[in-house]
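Weekly structure sync - notes
Attendees: PM, LS, DV (DV joined late)
Agenda: review two folding runs queued last week.

Item 1: First target. Sequence and structure tokens pasted below for the record.
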Amino acid sequence: MASSANIPLLDDYVYNAVDHGGLAAGRFNTGRWRAAWFIIGVEVAERFAYYGIASNLISYLTGPLGQSTAVAAANVNAWSGISCLLPIIGAFFADAFLGRYRTIIIASLIYILGMALLTFSALLVPLTSENTEVASSHSSLLNVLFFFSLYLVAIGQSGHKPCVQAFGADQFDEKDPKEKRDRSSFFNWWYLSMSAGICLAIVVVVYIQEAVSWALGFGIPCVFMLISLVIFVLGRWSYRYTKRIPEEEINPFVRIGRVFFQAFRNQRSFELEANPSQGSPERLRFLNIALLAPNPCNVSDVNDATALVRLIPVWLTTLPFTVPYAQYMTFFTKQGVTMERTIVPGVKIPPAFLQVLIGISIVFFVLIYDRVFVPMAKSITKDPGGITMLKRIGTGMVIATLTMVIAALVETKRLQTAKEHGLIDQPQTTVPMSIWWLIPQYLLLGLADVFAVVGMQEFFYSQVPTELRSIGLALYLSVFGVGSLLSSLLISLIDLATGGDAGSSWFNSNVNRAHLDYFYWLLAAISALGLLVFLFISKSYMYRPVDGV
């Protein structure tokens, strides 16, 4: 064991972190905001690339690829869902083997390859659509290439998304009071900057896709990703890299997995020793059994395992929030297609353009939240973050429920307007109702993000062991992944139950005969029910203490 004289002073060095050369990370020459901005930059480019695809994907599927509305919506939700689930695998490799920095590099290269192939597939669309015979013989191969490229992007995101944010938060030492406060602000500024990238993608890329070329619209984000990777690598000398302390040299998954194994094995012994006639008074909590003979586990390992188990109810009860969240890239956009979109004579905005309002809303409300709400709330609650992370998430869930109620009311108004003007069977004719009616639901969704999404990011990052924080953020992303898949399943089941396009489907390709209002009311009810369960669960949640304190 090293003598205390060889241990750097806490004031000068960061606990459990090294610099690029493998030496103890200096507190003042590594990490903090200088390093964080390099990392935020690569995330802005990634979100620019992702939303350059996602925000208008339903238009590409129903347009050049010729899919129906229900099939296209299900495909968008399935891809979005899998994109959010795969980070669990990427985070596992990062935390167990590669480290976050190396994982980000590898994932970025895969991401760039996927974007390049996607651009190539879009270049082939005009070639296959020039005559019917060529289109028929090549459409299947084109679809294979397109979806292969699309899911290659998802694989790239699997290593990129959880590791970049965890790596950024790692630049702040949670044992230093000032840096801990800065880390809380980091999550706010992270989301603000990320939203700026999303806004830029929607304003620039979506317009280019609609007005110029789909291939160019996919190619520009690819170039941005390449440039961001170069910038990220240039900042490597300023980063802090997490290093396991000696007692944690065992793979963290092995350490925590051993706790569950011992708990299962020892539980049987205690059940046999307990006196059935006395109602087993010696019965202990399941994980605490792992502390007892035979073969007891380390107390810190048991605490880490217990912390992961406590996350399960929270994870489950946030799912209802993410199902409504999945709709803005699909049905919100399809509503906008039918509405009056003229800004000035001869100029119409793309229906996906309104998604920029979510980003604008986030940028505006993050500034208010970080600079106004947090200081005011902190003076009352004495909590460093203003309010607890679970209260922040719950507030966002309330706003998300209200968003779906407003969306249902606006869609009811749109359908009534179409009926009044005899446009029910004229889906190509513009309904005389301004697209600006959709503004409230987009703005409220952005406000819900500021509370729920940012709160979930900080919660899942901070409530797992230090070594598993990529996994923590992957768990946060997986909530949205499962939510998107549930949305896809729900859409498919409802479409089947209501007869598809041949019947009175809620998702009829003729949206004037669809019933998206019914679907929005259903999602509002699901979200409200999930909120009630979340409030019940959160009351008994015990926050995990800081490592090493």
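Item 2: Second target, run right after the first with the same settings.
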Amino acid sequence: MTMTDFGEILKNVGEFGRFQKTLVFILCFLSFFNAFHMFGQVFMGISVPHHCNTDWILEKGPNLTEEVQLNLTIPRNEYGSYEQCLMYAPVDWDIESIQRSGLNSTSVCQNGWVYDTSQQKSTLVTEFNLVCHRKQQADISQAIYMLGLLIGSVIFGPLGDRIGRRPVILISILLMLAFGVGAAFVTEFYVYTILRCVVGIAMSGVLINNLVLVAEWVGSSHRAYATITGHVCFAVGQMVLAGLGYGIRNWRLLQIVCSAPTGLLFFYFWLLPESPRWLLTKGKNERAKKLLQKAASFNKQKLSEELLSKLQEDKRTKPGSMIDLFRRPNLRKITLVMSFVWFVNSLVYYGLSLNVGSFGLDIYLTQLIFGAVEIPARLGSMFIVQICGRKLSQSMCLLLGGTVCLIITAIPKTLPVVITVLAVIGKFAIAASFSICYIYAAELFPTVIRQNGVGLCSMTARVAGIIAPLISLLDKYHPAIPMSIYGSGPVIGGLLCFLLPETRNMDLQDHTDEANGIPRSLDVTKEQLVNENHQYHELDPKEQQKSTRL
């Protein structure tokens, strides 16, 4: 029995029995904690009211009240508030002269800043002075974290295909725990940024391999439910994070609370199984058989020795690489379209998320709303992919999200409620689309290069995550530019989706030649597949290449 028949074995094991449900359940804890790592800095880097430190004047008049001191030393802006980044330049006068004549010459802050810590005890902003000319460093830090996600896609996508899904998940969890907790004890902001980058690298390893491991253990009819269950837990994690951020106003303690729970997942070392599909592609048939027998037993199914004995090492299997994604025309089309779909999904998702301030609500309430919006979006996508299919669902969600963003560009700023409602609809559509593209990508790429395919898509998504905050800076040229970009990308992606094949209720492909030479259809019998495989391997190498091109 070749890998082509693995779906038949999985049916005998149980496509979504107790074993698979337990696997999805334990991986949900990881998805839940991932939200803390991904969005924790939103609350650790909250900006607080501040102004220049002007204690120099207290040497002239030690009995000045705070209000008088500010009136004498800090200019006011056009709205009547004290400037946050300007002060009156110190002079050598006595206090009476200063009060009589006043100060007129302004300068940037010369002796640091004074922060209002009545609401936030300690933040990254107050501890590392990320204000005024240093304000952009917080955005740069977030971009570097996203760069870590990109680097992780490059490293852990191919690594998962080489050493397995399970070890990469375990290594990633250990890195997230160690470097996440370590970031709470740094004394330099650049060190914090570096450690967060490593957490981002590890996060990619978790996201990619978590997705693929579930996809390769669960049958096609339940794969969407299994994958999106993890996405819902991620959304719940965002909501819980809002509560943690509200209750913990010290960034170091919040960093520990967000990172340390990952250590509770130490039991993965004993419970997390490897992918039997991956084991078979590597010729590790005995390990695959034992895993399948264990799963069947846990599912209270009987897996016959006769069926297992037909499992043979597949001689066609060679280590996959990124290059394999572009060698065959059909795979090349799938790779390019899916990469673009992931790119625009990430661009709009993070673009809208980074503009939560435009809601005009409290940041904790805003985070709660955005997390809550994702739950029905992701749950809805679970059903729509089974009813409408992957292709149509992906296209509809992208077109809806893009269209809403384009409509926002025509709404005047005087109608903030309308803009807010449209933004929530856009976030809803893009969150659903993001869940669908995870399922779709895992089903489109063959097993031997699935990690590489999903890894490449993830890489493009991370590039978009880095670009997203930069696009929002374009509003200084015209307010409609960012939303025009966020809107046009998904519309184009939604139209390109019609070039992709449908994968609903189809068994996963395992080899690159299947993706190009053998039609993916439920009507293809096992005998046809075996005959076509046999005929293909009877050809000499030149004829194989010719057959592949055809």
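Discussion on item 2: The beta strands are 50-52, 86-88, 106-108, 113-115.
Action: LS to circulate a short write-up before next sync.
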